[in-house]
Amino acid sequence: MRSAVVVVDMLNPYDHEDSERLMGSVHEALPAMRRIVARAREEAVPLVWVNDNHGDWSACRPELVRRALDGRAPELVEPIIPPDDAGFVVKARHSIFYETQMEYLLRQQQVQRIVLVGQVTEQCILYSALDAYVRHINVAVPRDAVAAIHDDLADAALRMMERNMRADVGEADVCDLGDHRVGRS
Amino acid sequence: MRSAVVVVDMLNPYDHEDSERLMGSVHEALPAMRRIVARAREEAVPLVWVNDNHGDWSACRPELVRRALDGRAPELVEPIIPPDDAGFVVKARHSIFYETQMEYLLRQQQVQRIVLVGQVTEQCILYSALDAYVRHINVAVPRDAVAAIHDDLADAALRMMERNMRADVGEADVCDLGDHRVGRS
Amino acid sequence: MRSAVVVVDMLNPYDHEDSERLMGSVHEALPAMRRIVARAREEAVPLVWVNDNHGDWSACRPELVRRALDGRAPELVEPIIPPDDAGFVVKARHSIFYETQMEYLLRQQQVQRIVLVGQVTEQCILYSALDAYVRHINVAVPRDAVAAIHDDLADAALRMMERNMRADVGEADVCDLGDHRVGRS
Amino acid sequence: MRSAVVVVDMLNPYDHEDSERLMGSVHEALPAMRRIVARAREEAVPLVWVNDNHGDWSACRPELVRRALDGRAPELVEPIIPPDDAGFVVKARHSIFYETQMEYLLRQQQVQRIVLVGQVTEQCILYSALDAYVRHINVAVPRDAVAAIHDDLADAALRMMERNMRADVGEADVCDLGDHRVGRS
Questions:
Q1: C156 vs D94, D134, D153: nearest CB
Q2: D164 in contact with C at a CB cutoff of 8 Å?
Q3: How far apart are alpha carbons A29 and A146 in whole angstroms?
Q4: CB contact, 8 Å: B52 with chain A?
C-alpha cells in the first residue's frame, strides 16, 4: 500500500486567539514532524503540504510561507517550510479534502494511505482523518507529530481516530511509511 | 434563520457488534426524538430522514423500513418510522453529506440550520455536524435526542461540536426550531 | 474492465414543454434500450437506474414509477420500469454524478466503465458522460439507445463525447458490456 | 447580482497536439479577453484565474506563469498574465469546479454569476458552464473572448450553453459585469 506524508496547516502566523496554547504544543511536536518529513524525503515517499489560505484567494505557496514567517513565531515555521518539489494544496476550511484537489491528487499518485502530521489534532487533523476514512483512504497519525490546543479533546480525537476510523496512531519514528512504489500493495 | 430536523440512521436492524450498547442508549433517547419530531410536524419545520443503505443500492425507504422492523429491535424502529411526506436521503458512509443530495436539498429549501437527532453521537452525528460546519450550515444537537455507543467519546464529541463547531448543544424540548418561514432570517 | 449499464431519466411524466419532441425520440430508442437492459440482466452486468426526483425529496422508486405511469406517456415508461434488484439513485440536477451516491456506488462495485442509455442525449447524457470522464470512468453511449430533443445538438453532443471524452459511441446491440467479473480487467 | 470574471487555462505552453489550431483562435480572442479583464479591474469586479497544473502538484502561480512563458507562444501568454491580487485556483481536470476551491470561493465572495473567458470553448468552457449551471450559478460567455479548437463543436457548445444552460452568450464589450457590490442583487 502506497503512503503519502501530509503536513497540515504548519504555515501559520499564530495570530488567532488560541495561538498561545497551540504554540507550546507545536514546539514539542516539531522535531518529530521534521524527522518523519526527512525520512519521507529519503525514501521518496510523496510529501504534500496542505494549508489554509486564511481567505486570501490570490495567495499561493510563496505568499503563505512569507506571511507565516512574518508572524509571531517564525521559529515554528522556518523548520517546516515546504521544499519546492513537494505537493502543495490550498484549503479554505478545516478538512484537507473539502473542496480541494486532495482526493484527486492522491488517486493520481496511487496513494491509499496518508500519514497526517501538523495541527490541530482535535480539529483539522481529526476532520481530515474522518474525510479520508469515508473515502476508504487509510490513515496514520503519529501522536508525537501533531499539535493540539485542548489536550482533553486531542486525546479524545486520537481515540476516535483509532477506534472508529481504524487509524494507525503511534509514534512518528516507528510509523510505517508504506511501500511507496507504485504498483506494490 | 430556517431550520430542518434531520433524523439520522434510526432505521437500524441492530445486528452489528456494538448494537447491545447502542440499543440501551437509543431506548433512552427515543422519547426526546419523538417529541422534537412531533414539534417539527406541528410547526411545519422541514423533516428529513437520512439513513445508511448498508450497501444495498436497490433499497429505498420501504425496504430500509422493512428490514429495520425485521431486525432485533423493532420497538426502537416503529416509533420513529418516517412519514410519507418527510424528506428521505440514502447515505452509504457516515456523514449525511458525503456523496449524497443533502447539501443541495438544504439549499433548495433555504435551510441554514440543521437539528441533528438519532445515532451515533460520536460517529455519524459528529461527522455530519462537522460537514455542516465546513459548509457554513448551523448545527444544533439536542443531547437527550442522540444515542451513543461509548459514553466517553460521545461526551467528547458533544464538547467538540459545542466548542469547535459552534453547535447549539442543549435539551430537545427547548431546542429552537427556528423561524422556518422561507425569507425570514 | 467492469461495466455497468445506467438508465437515465426514463421515469418521466413527459409534462414539460419539450416533451412532444422528446417522446418521438424515446419511442424510437426504447427497443434498443430494452435489448441492452435484457442483455445486461442475462450477463449479470450491474444495472442502475438514475432518475430526477423533480424536486420531491420524499420520493423514492415507487413514487417516481407511479408518477411516470400516471403521466402523458405510460407506454414509454412501462417497458423500462426498474426491476426490484437494480440499483436506484435519485438525482436532482442534470448530471447523474452531481451530489449523488453514483461515484461511490461505482467504486464499491469496482465498475470502471458506464454504458449510458436513456434521455436526453444533449443534456443529461452529455453532462453525465463528462462527469464520468473527469473522474476517469470510461463511457459508452449507444446512439440508438439515447433519446434527444434537438437533433442538431444531439449530434454535436455525440461527437463531443466521442472526440473529447473518448466515449465509445456505437450501436446498442454490439456495445461491449465488458468483463463484468470483479477482479478481471 | 454580483458577477466575477473567470479566465480559464490561459497559462498554456501550447505543446499538445491540437495547439496549432488553438493558437490561431487564441490570437483572435485575446484582445476581447484583455478588454473585459481591464474593465473588470476598473470596476472592481472580482477576477479569478483558473488553470490546469498539467499534473505538477508542486506548481503554483509563479511556476505556471513561467512555464507558459517558456512555451511555444509567449506572445499569447504575456498579455494575460494574472495580476498579483487576482484570485488564482489550480485545477487538474477540465471543469473549473471539479475538486477545486471554486464553488467555495464564489460563495464566500457572494458571486452568483460568472463571466467565462479563455479556452477551450467546446471543452473547459462548456464543462465549466455546465458545472456552474447545475450549481445555480449564472453564466455569461462572450463569444469573442473564448478560443476553440474545432469551430463546429465550439458553435454547438455555444448553442448548448445558450439554450440548455441559459447562458448569456454575446460580445465581450457589451457583456454586463453585473452590480458587483456585495449586498445588491
A1: D153
A2: yes
A3: 6
A4: no
Which uninterrupted H or E stretch holds C170? Answer: strand C168-170
Collect all residues of chain D within an 8 Å Cβ-Cβ radius of residue A41: none
Three cell numbers written together for C85 = 434488484
D55 closest CA partner among D16, D90, D8: D90
Per-residue pLDDT of chain A (185 residues; tens, 9 = 90+): 899 999 999 999 999 988 999 999 999 999 999 999 999 999 999 999 999 999 999 999 999 999 999 999 999 999 999 999 999 999 999 999 999 999 999 999 999 999 999 999 999 999 999 999 999 999 999 999 999 999 999 999 999 999 999 999 999 999 999 875 555 44
Contact (CB<8Å) A160/B130: no
Per DSSP, the three-state class of D125 is: helix
Does D185 have pLDDT greater than 80? no
Surface of C (65-124) touching D: CB under 8 A: 93-95, 98, 122-123
CB < 8 Å & 24+ apart, contacts of B59-64: B59/B90, B60/B88, B60/B90, B60/C60, B60/C61, B60/C62, B60/C88, B61/B88, B61/C60, B62/C60, B62/C62, B64/B11, B64/B90
List beta partners, residue A134: none
The predicted-structure confidence for C19-31, as pLDDT tens digits, reads as follows 999 999 999 999 9
Q: Is the whole model's pTM more than 0.90, yes or no?
A: yes
Q: Residue written as cell 422492523?
A: B69
Contacts with C5 (C-beta within 8 Å, 6 or more apart), sequence order: C36, C37, C40, C45, C46, C47, C48, C114, C115, C117, C177
Can you spell out the DSSP letters for B46-74? -EEEEEE-TT-TT--HHHHHHHHHTSS-H
| CB pair distance less than 8 Å for D94 and C134 | yes
ipTM > 0.95 (yes/no): no
